[in-house]
Amino acid sequence: RKEVEQDPGPFNVPEGATVAFNCTYSNSASQSFFWYRQDCRKEPKLLMSVYSSGNEDGRFTAQLNRASQYISLLIRDSKLSDSATYLCVVEYSSASKIIFGSGTRLSIRP
Amino acid sequence: EAQVTQNPRYLITVTGKKLTVTCSQNMNHEYMSWYRQDPGLGLRQIYYSMNVEVTDKGDVPEGYKVSRKEKRNFPLILESPSPNQTSLYFCASSLLAGGLETQYFGPGTRLLVL
After folding, report:
1. What tens digit of pLDDT does each residue of B57-97 get?
2. If contacts are CB pairs under 8 Å, which of residues 25-84 in chain A contact chain B?
3. How far, in Å, CA of B9 to CA of A65, rounded?
4. What are phi and psi of A6, to 5 degrees?
5. What is the DSSP secondary structure assignment for residue B73, as one 8-state letter?
6. Which of A51, A84, B45, B94: disulfide with B103, CB 3.0–4.6 Å?
């Protein structure tokens, strides 16, 4: 079983829709959680950190559920420019171990 | 401009021919790391470095070497490349270990080993 698992998708949704991804992790010692965005053939870029209390940045909301060991990303009012692969990242004890999920592909159609 | 640079960006080589991929950052970051990205497997950490002269193995270190003689540079060395090392490689740096919020990735190096 992978340490960090994501539904690979692709998710194909119309512009303006709300879409949510989940990511599960297996190691309860995980300390920090992040969502990255990666465009085709480009480097990953930090989208947002994920805090226990949940956090929101514009149309994006991230949630962490430590009891069930998953994190989620919600995108509201999706735009064509949101089309990308979204990577879930789990960091253990001061970056001694960083695990990336294999990513969820999102495609927004007009 | 704050950035992480990698060279070369694209490389085709043959099995057994030693190669080095350079990585340099201009942000005075302490933490640097190398990843490889393969379809269906996501990014996997190869090696990381918490500071000058301090390096450690990530998840997939076999077949790779690194060095950190200067803060800004963190080259990845493949002493004897094999076809299973064909991949997309990313270098990354962050201000401190545990500082993924400040992590920058380089543009990537596509390597094909024949």
Report:
1. 998 999 999 999 999 999 999 999 999 999 999 999 998 76
2. 32, 34, 41-46, 49
3. 39
4. -135, 150
5. B
6. B94
Per residue in B22-60, pLDDT (tens digit) is: 999 999 999 999 999 998 888 999 999 999 999 999 989
Q: What is the pLDDT of residues A53-98, one digit of tens each?
A: 889 999 999 999 999 999 999 999 999 999 999 999 998 765 567 8
CA distances A18 to A9, A12, A14, A56, Å, are: 15, 11, 9, 14
CB B92 within 8 A of CB B67: no
Beta bridge partners of B5: B24
Look up tokens 């735009």; give the residue: A79
Residue of chain B minimizing CA distance to A47? B101
R_g (Cα) of chain B, nearest Å: 13
Say if the Cβ atoms of A98 and B100 lie within 8 Å.
Answer: yes
Bridge-partner residues for B54, per DSSP? B51
Residues in chain B with CB shorter than 8 Å from the CB of A97 are 45, 58-59
- What residue in A sits closest to B55 (Cα-Cα)? A96
